[in-house]
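Sorry to interrupt, but I need a hand with the structure work. Go ahead and set the record down below:
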Amino acid sequence: MKLFLYIFGTLAVLLITIALLVQNPDVQDKLIQREIIQRMSSPQDDLFADDALRVTLCGSAAPMPIKGRAAACVMVIAGGKFYIVDTGNRSTNNLGLWQIPAKRVGAVFLTHFHSDHMGDLGEFNMMTWAQGRDEPLDVYGPKGVKQVVEGFAQAYSLDSSYRTAHHGEDYLNPTIGKMIAKEISLEGDSATVLDNEALKITMFPVNHAPIHPAVGYRFDYKGRSVVVSGDTTKTETTIRFARDADVLFHEGLSRHIVKQMEVESGKMGNKQLEKIMFDIQDYHASPVEAAEVANEANVKELVLYHLVPTPPNKVAEWAFMRDVKEVRSKGVTIGYDGLTLTLPIGSEYIYREDLNDRL
């Protein structure tokens, strides 16, 4: 008993001492300095090693509000650069938290022009510019991307001028702060967006009618491959361009849950939400259909993203994934912000990591 009281007393004195110390301004400054050094000197350079194709889900949610998730965004890392497919709202914040170095940005690729796929474009451009991007930002997309880029440029024009005036052109050069729209015409069934021998990026059409155009992208790098569907129903085009891919990021909408949301909205007299919930059911793929696409395309790993609605807990996940195992018993993941897959060159392995574990 005496030993217990001694230990308890010693711990109490220690805790009181620590509590008093951290209220000292000098101690606070030292702790803050250590955190600043840690945060500013630890860019994720290992992610850019030329030994693998890597892909991170920087936004797994759809427009519906959900805690802790950004809207649609996929980051593909290859050849020392990162490429962003869609800039859903809040995704730029994730990239900043994970300390993705702005100087390594390659380009942005937009799948279509719903707000939850391009709402953060202005923020992404501004933040990578402010953090040291050394070239204007290329923004690729189907017809309409010029209008989107010009709109964001106009909306951010005052902000950009303020920052250059404040910090000077040597640090925030307005020419580097620009976005350059790269509008790709899909006259056939696909278009090569970029091909530098090691990395090839292909755009292909998907079905998100009445939204048109809508596209997906395939990334091929030194024998490894990643496909991002964008918003789509189950289509033969996606199956064809995902053929034998290592990883397919495919959107997913749970129709039976959304149908419940439609019915309950009607009971509550919310006709606006009832109509929206009814309308969105026919221009997305269900998790089961996404699994069918992955099977028919012989994809190694399927990652569901743009989750409608995004499951907030395990029970909701089970409901969201209902009947998927009957179609595809393995090689299916419900995506989350930070999920990172590493595909080593010269191998068939896929390694996974959560970038949030590095924080």
